[in-house]
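Hey team,

Filing this mostly as a record. A colleague (T.K.) asked me to run one chain through the structure pipeline before their review meeting, and I want the input and output archived in the tracker in case anyone asks later how it was produced. No errors, nothing strange. Just documentation.

Input sequence:
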Amino acid sequence: MIVGDEPTPQTRQLLLLIASGATDRVIARELGLSERTICRRIASLQLRLGVRTRFQLGVLAATNGWL
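Output structure:
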């Protein structure tokens, strides 16, 4: 996924939880995944979208209308 692409429903849900300030533990519980999987998915999103922090990821998601 690059900026301009529409995220999948699963990625959109992950971005919404990140933007709401949820911890990896809370996100993992909500999505039924391990905390390590959540960490990896967030790191992958940050790399693909060219952001360094979860905050920047949330801002990017909001400004692109993904939330």
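Quick notes for T.K.: Helices lie at 9-19, 24-31, 35-49, 54-63. The CA atoms of residues 4 and 30 lie 27 Å apart.
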